[in-house]
Write a structure and sequence with these properties.
Distance between the termini: 22 Å
Shape: elongated
Order of helices and strands: HHH
Radius of gyration: 13 Å
Largest sheet: none
Strand content: under 5%
Length: about 55
């Protein structure tokens, strides 16, 4: 496997994990960065957008 292919796979895993966290528990991620908790739906929509299309 080439370095470029490995990088694309790692980035795909990163997007998958980030999207899953934003869908399931967005306030956990927000608290890590010091952003106040939210009950709005926009953060979950961002999680859907972050998910790779092949999941």
């Amino acid at each position: 496997m080439s370095k470029a292919a490995f990088t694309v796979k790692v980035f795909g895993v990163y997007l998958f994990v980030l999207g899953l966290i934003l869908l399931v528990s967005p306030n956990t991620l927000l608290s890590i960065f010091g952003i106040p908790e939210t009950t709005e739906v926009w953060i979950r929509v961002l999680g859907v957008i972050a998910e790779p299309p092949y999941t």
